[in-house]
Amino acid sequence: MKDLVIIGSGPAGMAAGIYARRGGLDTTLIEKVSPGGQAVYAHSIENYPGSYQVPGYELMFSFANHLEKFGLAPEVMEITGTELSGKVKLVHTQSATIEAKAVVIASGASPRKLGMPNEGRLTGRGVSYCASCDGNFFKGKVAAVVGGGDAAAEDALYLAKICSKVYVIHRRDSLRAQDIVQKRLFAMQNVEMVWNSVTEDILGEEKVESLLIRDVNDKTLRELPTDSIFVAIGQVPNTGLFAKEVSLAETGHIIVDREMRTNVPGVFAAGDVTVKPLRQVVTAVSDGAVASYSAIKYISTEF
Ligand code: NAP
Hints:
alpha/beta
């Protein structure tokens, strides 16, 4: 039996891994796709202390290298189910069942979809959820970014350096992005803010040709010609697998206390998957450290 299974290898999971291994826990770190989580897609991270304007993938690569120094590498496998309520926790994957004394859930979040009729059909044909992955396909072309948070503002800034024109479509008349990012965005000559507007549908047969938007004040509908649409309207926590066992908030995030304990003894959660006021790399790593610290304490008293 393992001491600890960590689910997810974004910043929270990797920090949890470093603290668990330093604390002497026999640990398995499970990852569905590849290490780094959503942070990998950040064009530039400038608010993680010690890293100024570092591409997200570079920072995550250094996390993974650091983790390896403590003898831990993420194992890529898909979890099919969990049984967390017993003293011995069971994590089922497609190929095996892992038994552990404690579990840290750091499964992160996935991009929220707009839910427009043609969104699915045109995803990969102009509709994208990752500006740093797909922005280059639209060099010199027109882009529309939907959203008003940090992700939307940063995506728009990134795209403004590549594309001829960038529209930012937001449902209100002010952004919630950090002030410094807003100022940079408003200074870009080729960025046009489209305030108080919601998206109704995407038009185009083979690829995106335009976006249908409605003004929320006068309810008028208009077609905005664009080659691409970058959706940045927040994240949905990856908690589907644990919903029956662990208490969730209405938003779907896992409820934790200050020690990153969930309602289930021996089960901890960290990072974007949890209820928290600020979702950043710096808070994710802090969560991960606390979660493993708490797991070490739990194991030493219960086993
Ligand atoms: P977010 O802060 O939740 O913002 C989502 C934005 O999308 C909001 O402006 C929201 O509008 C809008 N929105 C939500 N649902 C919508 C819908 N159905 N239709 C149209 N618009 C919709 O999400 P985020 O920007 O992905 O950021 C997530 C977290 O990561 C935040 O805590 C953020 O600070 C952090 N983050 C930090 C950085 C950084 O520090 N460098 C970079 C990226 C993200 P309203 O404003 O009207 O609610």
